[in-house]
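ARCHIVE RECORD
Type: protein–small molecule complex
Small molecule: F0G
Source of inputs: curated submission
Record status: active
Notes field left blank by submitter.
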Amino acid sequence: MENRENSTRAGVLARYGARLPLTKDTPMISLSEGSTPCIPAPRLAATLGLSSLYLKFEGMNPTGSFKDRGMVVAIAKAVEEGATCVICASTGNTSASAAAYAARAGLSCLILVPKGKISKSKLLQAQMHGATVVSVGGSFDTALSLVRSLGAAYRVAIVNSINPYRIEGQKTAAFEIVDELGQAPDLLVLPVGNAGNITAYWKGFVEDKAAGRIPSTPRMIGGQAAGAAPIVLGHPVESPETVASAIRIGNPASWKQALAALGESDGIIDMVEDEDILSAQRLLARAEGVFCEPASATSVAILGRLLSENRLPRDSSAVCVLTGHGLKDPSVEPHGHSSIDFDGDLAGLAKACKLVPL
Ligand code: F0G
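STRUCTURE (tokenized, with ligand):
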């Protein structure tokens, strides 16, 4: 058998176990998560007027989002601690990931989602993996408060990012960026919803600096959707609304930690309109060949906004985190795209497609 121990295919626990809170009793679960590519984006960098830009494409994880790298740790620790059932609230990706890793580990999985507010693909993933799905009237925030109540009264392990093992696993994305680029970028740009991921990246970079792997940490740059921007506005949003359903959150659980990361890193958090999120999504797809879901494109949209307002230096190096795959959300329209119906006329077809004759 091949030796997978040190291979990037071995998964987060094998690759970064020494920097995670594992014990000899932690099961080495893996779906080959992590080790996602950091893709250079020269065209996009030129369009934005930035000297260097990489895309950390977390959509390449086994369930199609960054959640897998934290979920593998949370599920392994739940098994180690004797849990038989895990529970989470979700805007879709956490539930897809929890369901997959629970299936892998032989645990049952209960997920609470805002009714009618999550993408069909993400719901399908949870259902295919055998999770019990509960639809909750209200927003993600309502679902999360129910999860907290159930977790306090019943034998279930909560695997939302309020579970510190999730943050531990997600910090490995920062390690990977440093390992792959040989240094930290000037700017780490990401979408902010429940604020677990910004907390996790910051923890990872701080640990890398403490260990002497990097001389300095990046500035953390967060983007929220204008209709769901509690941290930017400084107060919870009762009924969050945005096309980026993954970050439709009005009262982030890790709000305080996000503010700490922003403060300590000289970071910036601001918001972008839905139309800017969707045009960033198309730009990524058409200029760089990378298809991410709307929430993920918030990173590129906020970077574009801050650069255009001269709030960031153009000679910066940046990594934009693309948190989930574009196939996760088939509800978006391929704006400006028209397909051609073939009516049996080959020459007419060639002309319509602007093909050049031999
Ligand atoms: N991008 C995507 C694709 C997400 O699914 C999420 C969160 C975020 C960004 C924001 O990350 O919450 O750590 O600030 N999705 C959660 C879920 C809430 O339930 O799947 P965050």
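CURATOR ANNOTATION: The longest helix spans residues 196-210.
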